[in-house]
Amino acid sequence: MSSGAVQAAAGRPARGRRSLIGPRSVLRLPSARVAIAVLIGIGILTVFGATLAPQNPLTINANALFQGPSSHHLLGTDYLGRDVLSRLMAGTRLSVLTALEAVGIGLVLGTVPGVATVFLGRWFDFTANRVTDALMTLPSIFFAVAVTAALGNGLVQAMVPIGILLAPFFFRVTRAATLEHARAQYVEAAELLGASKLHVVRVHVLRKVLPTIAVTTASMTAAALLSVSFLTFLGIGVQPPAPTWGGVLSSDLDYLAQAPWAPFIPGALIAVTVGALNALADAFRDRSGAGTLLLTAPAAVTPETLERVDDDRRSQPAA
Amino acid sequence: MSLRPRAARRGVALAAGLALALLAAACGSSTGTSTASASGATAGASGTLNWEWELPTSWDPVTSTAGWDMHVLGLVYASLTTLDPSGSVGPGLATSWKYAPDGKSVTFTLRPGLKFTDGTPLNATAVQQNIERGQKQSNSTVAAELSVISKVVVNSPTSFTLDLAQVDYQVPDLLAGKDGMMVSPAAFKNPGSLPTHPVGAGPFKLTSYVPDSHADLVRNPGYWDASQIHVANFTVQSITQPEQILASLESGQVNVAYIAGNQVASAKAAGFKIAVIPSEVVNELDIQTTSAPFNKPQVVQAINYAINRQAILQVQAAGYGAVSYQPFPKGFVGYSSTLASLYPYNPAKARQLLAQAGYPHGLQLTLTTVSTSDSLAEQIQGQLKQAGITAVIKDIPSDTETQYLYLDKTIPLAIDGTAGRMSPVEMLDVLYSQQGLMNVDGKAGTVPSPVNQALAKALTVPLDSPSYPAALRDAVTTAVQDEPIHIWLYTNPRIFAYSPKVTGIPFDLVQQRWEGVRVAG
Amino acid sequence: MTVLNMPRAAAGATPPRRRRGRIIATRLGGGLAVLLPIVLISTFITYSLGALSNSDPAATILGQDAATPAAVARLNHSMGLDRPLIVQYWSWLTQALHGNLGRSYFTQIPVAQSIAQRLPVDLSIALLAVLLAIVIGGTAGTVAAVRRGGWFDRGVTVVCSAASTLPAFVVGIILVVLFAMTVHWLPANGYVGPSTSVPQWLAHIILPSLALSLAVSADIARQLRTSLVDVLERNYIVGARVRGLPYRRILFRHALRNAAGPALTILGNDFPLMLAGAVAAEAVFSLPGLGQLLLESAQTRDIPVVQGLLLVISCFVIVVNLIVNVTLNGLYRTSDGIGT
Fold this sequence. Notes:
The complex is a heterotrimer of chains A (319), B (521) and C (340). With 319 residues, chain A is an all-alpha fold. Chain A is built from eleven helices and no strands. With 521 residues, chain B is of the alpha+beta class. Chain B has helices spanning 3-27, 70-76, 124-136, 143-146, 171-174, 242-250, 264-269, 297-306, 309-317, 347-356, 375-386, 398-408, 424-432, 449-459, 468-482; strands spanning 48-52, 81-83, 89-91, 94-99, 105-110, 149-156, 159-164, 204-210, 214-219, 233-237, 256-259, 273-277, 282-287, 322-323, 363-370, 389-396, 413-418, 486-491, 494-498, 502-503, 518-519. Chain C is mostly helical and 340 residues long. Chain C is built from twelve helices and no strands. Chain C has helices spanning 16-52, 57-62, 69-79, 85-97, 111-146, 151-165, 168-182, 198-232, 235-242, 247-285, 290-299, 303-333. Chain C is globular and about 85 Å long. Chain C starts with 15 loop residues before the first helix and ends in a 7-residue tail after the last helix. The chains are: A mainly alpha (319), B alpha+beta (521), C mainly alpha (340). At the B-C interface, helix 1, helix 6 and helix 12 of B face helix 5, helix 7, helix 10, helix 11 and helix 12 of C.
């Protein structure tokens, strides 16, 4: 998964600024500006890609195989004479939408239990943590391919398990952030005054937790996009002639001798998009002080590490 | 103070442990013994030939489900007869044969003193046991082709007579391929091991086999024609991706590679020699005329007209080969000029035919293929679209293809090709008769009687008779026109890109042989 | 949980060795209490994939013609497929502990055999990749931290950001283009076992391992640099320098050990990433490994193979994380940050 999401800070909880992220503060970072520009471009392609493409991505031209970049074909042609630029533009939609679908699943499946677990007692916490750890032992690509064995070879079927496997990251992050904020004095005060747990969550906790979720969402979207590219590279969910980023890369690999420059193009596209998302995640993190969190792997979740995350709770004086 | 160095050492020990584990784990490698590169080198034979080629579906000729396997099986097994490069039958394990005057039996004379690589004698009794196994084993794929032999009579250790169920002058041709490959009867006791552990009397002996990867072989000095085998070691490597094939040639991993026409230019540019060997291979689509919508003849014709074979030849094979509407290539005795332009490219006519068949708004079908980036499938898909046919491409793993397509017969439309057969009538039989392996209608369909009659007739004409070419051509024309279960596309010569160190590759029409090949250096 | 919160330096209460033994035992015990549910849940998820699929093994095994309803029912019963899911799962798991992972629906070859045949390929690549990642990432991160602010540091940061966004399959393709197609130094595909020839084996696995290790090296380098910079500014390091200890000794004995922890955690976290990369490497370099086996059996819906593979892989992940954890404990326990 994306490296951006994993930051070990030796158990030091963030107690710095908690200013909510606003578009203005993030935009002050030049890297964030570039990243947002790139992402807006990708977004436009996602919505309008096929119509903006200079040529029909499906037109086969037997006389124009493996051409290099030219005025007629800005990025050259592929093994069937089709325009590469148009194919990549048309393929953006499928790749991006399925990545977003996976992130959406992970977001919902992860954040809801992540917030709830702080309020629902020890047993729920224990079970949720163990399920999370168990999910983290399953490598995502293997699991996704295995699910296609069960449910059939479709990109939608493959992205659902990716989404499920993103949930643990959301869970951990949300849980830690919620723990941090749920122990604040004013929250305890509110509870003493008779506010229901739901009210506490809605009014006090959620707003503070959102920056953290934003950071994780950006990183996880990058990870999901890489997963989509990889799965389509392996041939899963590829429905010819519909182009996908990974599918174009995979066929470029087959014809390397005829066109050695070819794989760099979709490779660069994937790298740039993923890089932009990671840069955005970093920018969110810097601006919001949304905390550096310990996200360890399952078997390393010994009582010690649990203690480290629980440190907040114990360091507060008992009420 | 004393704790720290220990801890540091522990860290180093862990890294060392990891390294050892790496070595230890990797040492437990694949099954089979390692090739001893020295053991194959004997009198005058030297060097290793690394052949890039598809590995067989089974190393047992009786259970192999693909005609293509004959090339690799021919490395470990010797057949009773052998085809020369032009396709005429000559001696193999048998030195001569003679038909009875009525044509219903043929007597073969075997070479004396032949042995399998496990020491079992290769005599007439062994031949009898082999033929009977091919006919009777439950999962045999050659039973239909051997059914013409009603009885094997052993006359002496070096002579046997085949009694035939009907007059058939192509039996010696038949026995030049898989049907005549002799397996050691000692191995019959354990038929389950044969698909991975073959025992034969061929030019080479298998020493190690890793499925989906490679096979290692050494020269068999006991082969009847061993004096013609000058290569000491042989490996077969299966590389699925086209660009990998060129890369492996360049790195020296293989020295003879099977390439497609559109790779010739790159291979030449990289300094390799090219051999374009005329072959019987024809690329085609298998179509099940017993499943809707293909049960309507107009639909099948529409597909034929919708395909632009010339464009396919250009893109897929860079022009190496020829557009074809029949199973035999031009210049071959069975080639029929009546069929020379059976379905000229005409998408408008295709649309018309579809409308006549009841599909005025087009049709949807599934095209099955192997290999995820099969550009042929995509090209056909694009062409069909012009005629209003929406094709969905379905990929299946290559090692399941023959199972689904030929044995289970569950695929309505698939990209396929013929590998060729030793006997032309055998080829037509496999393609068009009801029990033919490549007839995807199988028992569900009924072969029109004219086709059966024409095939039977061609069998009764001796090969050297002047009326044989006409009889064969007639069989071809009847079959192609009356039984449209194969949509022929283009002929595919066998193109090798090979290192200049390799010399003497014979230009065999049907099965690639290695007599006379030398590897220098 | 509180009982496991062992005080760090309860000075002199019990002899150090016996106390450490007790700590290890209780930690192991606690660790197992946490580990066991994890293993059970993850293996159950793996097994229930089979139930999710509606593939019909009986038809595949018996063949189209022989698959009459009676024959199918008989076969299902003999394979135990008509029992409740939990029972099937338990029997599968206990069999797996004995090394029996069932047979492929399609080829009838024992799953354990297919896996064992292909395992050395991935193991070679993964372990070499780990070594490379530690060496490359460790060196880069250390040098960047020691010469922080310099051109090497800035260069490393840029390269790391780029490298960690490049998926392993893209890196693999680039390596093939550079080393196999242009300069012909190394073979572009295939695998030769070390028992055949160690130099050839190394030649075949070096490119795939390199492709795998780059993303992880980048993560390690970045993390190590951050931690090391942090540690190098701590009081005890400064104190040691003031006292005149040689810089290299400080670096290796004290600073690196303390900074290595988070970087090692990254290794543990990224291990599943490396497994995914191994699948990529197999696709790009035509290696006969577990990833290819998974792809093929997924395409043919050969459920026992898929289940067996997933089980083996998740066990590897758990084992690797345990190793990382043990190493972390080793590092942390003897380096409390207080100089002795």
